[in-house]
Amino acid sequence: MKDLATELQQRKSEGLYRSRRITESAQSTEIIIDGKKLLNFCSNDYLALANHPDIKQAMKKGLDQYGTGSGSAHLISGHSRAHHALEEELADFTGYPRALLFSTGYMANSGIAQSLCGQGDGIFEDRLNHASLLDGALLSGARLQRYGHLDIDDLNSKLAASKKQEKLVMTDAVFSMDGDIAPVGELAETCHQHQAWLMIDDAHGFGTLGKQGRGTLEQLNVSPAEVPIYMATLGKAAGTAGAFVAGSEDLIEYLIQHARSYVYTTAMPPALAEASRASLKIIQHESWRREQLQSLIKRFRSGAQQLGLQLMHSATAIQPIVTGDSQQAIRVSEQLLDKNILISAIRPPTVPNGSARLRITLSAAHTEQQIDQLLNELEKIFSTT
Ligand SMILES: *Cc1c(COP(=O)(O)O)cnc(C)c1O
Questions:
Q1: Is residue 272 domain-shared with residue 294, that is, in the same domain?
Q2: Per the structure, how many domains does the chain have?
Q3: Closest ligand 1 atom, CA of 172?
Q4: Are strands 229-233 and 197-201 parallel, antiparallel or unpaired?
Q5: Domain boundary among 242, 263, 285
Q6: pLDDT for 92-148, tens place per residue?
Q7: Measuring from atom 1 of ligand 1, which residue has the nearest CA?
Q8: CA 233 to ligand 1: nearest atom
Q9: 3-state SS string over 308-344?
Q10: Nearest CA to ligand 1 atom 8
Q11: 4 domain residue, yes or no
């Protein structure tokens, strides 16, 4: 048996120990943690919908109508009118024939990989993909090959060399720890040439990108017809919880038959589906949220550049500052906390070794003054380290 205490102690000494803070308020640009009011720059609530009155009202109404629990899996008796309506609205919104709800994005990704691929098949993933995509591939039993970040040539040669029966390419659309965007049009072309499936995970693009918030495909002007599998989550910009996969009639029916993370789990509460329906309406109709977010991103980037901070190639709400060293990332995060600013230090294995970072995320509800306050504190900290 391994010595857990020693291993935990070693993690601490490497600056890799993780611990939780206790939040005592709703998500917002200001949150109460351990009794202290903090300026929040580490939430994925990009459009400030996680505590929106209309969405809460829809959820309350859903609770009155359906109660709290769905009672069973979708294929037994848990698939409510609310779930079904949300699926239809998500399909409409994303421009796909059908959509299928999953309880979490993690489960959607494992369901896709495991349904389409097994032993004898090949899954190809960008080196910086989210852990849920990697885990999905491992669970499927297919051979997992990772290609260089955004490196179409590398993918191309790996696909060309592969003799696998089914080939599935999976990628973050917006990379969760870097904020850059995959070249989806070129990926689609490459996949088409090699008769490989293409799946994109738009957890961070859905709601925030594109004029109408349809996500990365709208932003890059790529037709849904070119990307057979589209997945996005509802716990980030949409401010609720859960995830969905959009695709053809046959893809969705196939997932309903085969995706174990769909079949063998209780359906999300119907009231939550009602909340997501209300959120989808706001995403569609309030483009000012995306405009506001974009203008704050520009303000942050130009301010940070003036300070000589090393930014990443990101035009999205994810604006990391890489420190490299894990201990330094923690130190900066703690110094910011002393100034009542909350930004978490992201360390390996979430990011590659030697690329620890402060993952700053912006929200449409931040004010220009709050952005300037952050820049001010960053200036003080980085000029003395
Ligand atoms: C957050 C995230 C997920 C997981 O979604 P959950 O609904 O939180 O399980 C999957 N993929 C990416 C890229 C993510 O950022």
A1: no
A2: 2
A3: 13
A4: parallel
A5: 285
A6: 999 999 999 999 999 999 999 999 999 999 999 999 999 999 999 999 999 999 999
A7: 203
A8: 7
A9: CCCECCCCCCEEEEEEECHHHHHHHHHHHHHCCEECC
A10: 105
A11: no
